[in-house]
Amino acid sequence: MKKIILATAAGAVFLAGCADMNMSDTQRRTATGAGIGAVAGAVLGSTGGNAGAGAAVGAGVGALGGYIWSQRMERQKQEMEAATRGTGVAVSQTADNQLRLDIPADISFDVGRANVKSNFAPVLDQFANGLRNNPNALVRIIGHTDSTGSDAINNPLSVNRAASTRDYLVMRGVPATQFQIEGRGSMQPIATNDTNEGRARNRRVEIYVGERGNAG
After folding, report:
1. Cys bridge to 42: 8, 30, 152, 201, which one at CB 3.0-4.6 A?
2. CB 7 within 8 Å of CB 15
3. Are 174 and 128 in contact (CB under 8 A)?
4. Residues 79, 130 within the same domain
5. CA 58, CA 129: separation in Å to the nearest integer?
6. Which H or E element spans position 142?
7. Which residues constitute the domain of residue 132?
8. At 69, is the secondary structure helix, strand, or coil?
9. What tens digit of pLDDT does each residue of 116-168 get?
10. Are 60 and 77 in the same domain?
């Protein structure tokens, strides 16, 4: 039993060491978390006579960083992919097991406005359906603008876009306590602001959904 735990601990140290090589910050945290989780899992598992199984569970928990990718999350990802097909909305799973929606301005908001556009509403309606079925979900909405105008205009505009998105979802029955909103103004462009196309890409909303790993 001690040999198993020591071997697992050695593996955790190896994982943490590997985390320094050719990895992004997220990947490095994931690898280190997996190693630490494996040690904890092995110790817990050994008390029940199955250190190997405990190590596997512990590694999974450590790697997730607090979020789990449950069947509900996978189902919601598939539903959102179907609902947004052809709209320009990008749906993905992040490295730390969050569902991410990148929503461009041409579907979400008019220039200089924070009102939810009519063609954005069906996407949010489908999104709300999935959230209502997942009370353990935590939702973070981040609004962005292009560089046109001053920070005095863009910063509150980005917050208002995030708030409008949240308010729409709350009106569709999602508890307000599940949301956190942020506005980044023009500080985080994903394209050049020197062209109309680039500015349109920068006017966007990002939505992240994470299911808590300690959910009952």
Report:
1. 8
2. no
3. yes
4. yes
5. 32
6. strand 137-143
7. 71-212
8. coil
9. 888 888 899 999 998 998 888 999 999 999 999 899 999 999 999 999 999 99
10. no
